[in-house]
Design a protein that fits this description.
Elements (H helix, E strand, L loop, with lengths): L1 E2 L9 H15 L7 E5 L18 H14 L4 E4 L3 E3 L1 H8 L2 E4 L4 E3 L13 H9 L1 H10 L2 E3 H7 L4 E2 L5 H13 L3 H12 L2 H19 L3 H12 L9
Parallel strand pairs: 1-2, 2-3, 3-5, 4-6, 5-8
Antiparallel strand pairs: 6-7
Helix pairs in contact: 1-2, 2-9, 3-4, 4-5, 4-9
Length: 236
């Protein structure tokens, strides 16, 4: 499964819907036992393009499609090269595993935009890296590289950049070599009501995003990002 909107692979509701539709189709195909999620170009995914119309219909409409990714039953391995930023980090965290490289960059940069985090990171990020690492990443919005990502558990495999896809495919093949009914049963037990928890989290995330999009800090954050300068937030 490949995102093909290089170089940054920004998503919108239509792309997430198409990805969820593809997951659903593969769930119904008995030949498919694991999915590799990858992307074309230098970056994995930079989230939504906040200077465009990627949030047409609002965050809630986008997240209703995103929840469907968590309802899928086939294991997913994400091959992360370059940046996984904002909603792109959320997309990477929707996978069961992430294969990265030292050049990979991870950032939950929402607070640097005057914005609330989204894409279910309320649930997924603490489960992957723990609550304290999650709070630091969400509060500061700082970007970390693949080495630190591997150290805190965000990357399950860290390999040279030219081996990311091959390693992701190898891990998917290893999963596919196990009994498929057993893997799906184990996954269902381990994830529990993950989709339901993400649905509840994204309801809250979307409401807060809508609220904060009306603030001067949000406008300043987006302007600063577009102008590639530090934001000057005033708390209003």
């Amino acid at each position: 499964m490949e995102l093909r909107r290089p170089p940054d692979n920004y998503f919108d509701r239509a792309l997430i819907r198409a990805l969820a539709d593809a997951y659903q189709a593969l769930d119904a195909d008995p030949r498919c036992r694991a999915i590799v999620l990858c992307s074309e170009g230098k970056n994995f995914c930079a989230g939504a393009n906040l200077t465009g119309d990627s949030l047409d219909g609002g965050p809630g409409a986008l997240y209703r499609e995103a929840v469907r990714l968590f309802e899928a039953v086939t294991p997913v391995v994400a091959a992360v090269q370059g940046a996984a930023v904002g909603g792109g980090l959320g997309l990477a965290c929707s996978a069961d595993f992430r294969v990265g490289c030292p050049q990979a960059r991870f950032a939950a940069n929402f607070a640097r935009l005057g914005f609330h985090h989204g894409f279910g990171l309320t649930v997924t990020l603490p489960a992957i890296v723990g609550p304290q690492h999650s709070l630091e990443l969400l509060y500061t919005g700082r970007r970390i590289g693949g080495d630190e990502g591997a150290r805190i558990g965000l990357c399950d495999r860290l390999v040279p950049a030219d081996q990311v896809r091959d390693t992701a495919h190898a891990l998917a093949a290893e999963i596919a070599g196990s009994a498929p009914l057993a893997v799906r049963s184990i996954r269902d037990t381990m994830r529990g009501d993950l989709a339901g928890r993400v649905r509840a989290a994204t309801d809250r995330e979307a409401a807060e995003q809508n609220r904060l999009r009306e603030t001067a800090d949000w406008r300043e954050g987006v302007a600063a990002m577009a102008q590639r300068r530090p934001p000057r937030f005033e708390g209003r």
